Amino acid sequence: MTGLSTILIVVGLFLVGGIISFVKQEMPRSLIVLLSIAAAMCLVAGVMRLEVWN
Questions:
Q1: What percent helix, strand, coil does the chain show, rounded to 5?
Q2: In 10 A of CB 39, how many CB atoms?
Q3: 54 located within any domain
Q4: DSSP E strands: which ranges in 1-54?
Q5: Closest by Cα among 3, 4, 13 to 39
Q6: Taking CA atoms, which of 6, 8, 27, 50 is between 20 and 30 Å from 42?
Q7: 30: containing domain
Q8: Residue 52: predicted pLDDT
Q9: Angle at 53 between CA 2 and CA 12, to 5 degrees
Q10: Given CA atoms 32, 38, 41, 43 in this order, what sign does their dihedral have?
Q11: For residue 53, pLDDT beyond 80
Q12: CB-based contact 9:45 (threshold 8 Å)
């Protein structure tokens, strides 16, 4: 597990926590969708950079 993949996965999980918080605060749906797209992109990029795929 490289440093960049770890950072991407941690940032993705942090954004998932933000999504949960924003849903509880009843923030606008467009903001939640934007945040979930960013979280998914970070998590996918972090998982794809793992060395198990090589």
A1: 85, 0, 15
A2: 19
A3: no
A4: none
A5: 13
A6: 27
A7: 3-49
A8: 75
A9: 55
A10: negative
A11: no
A12: no
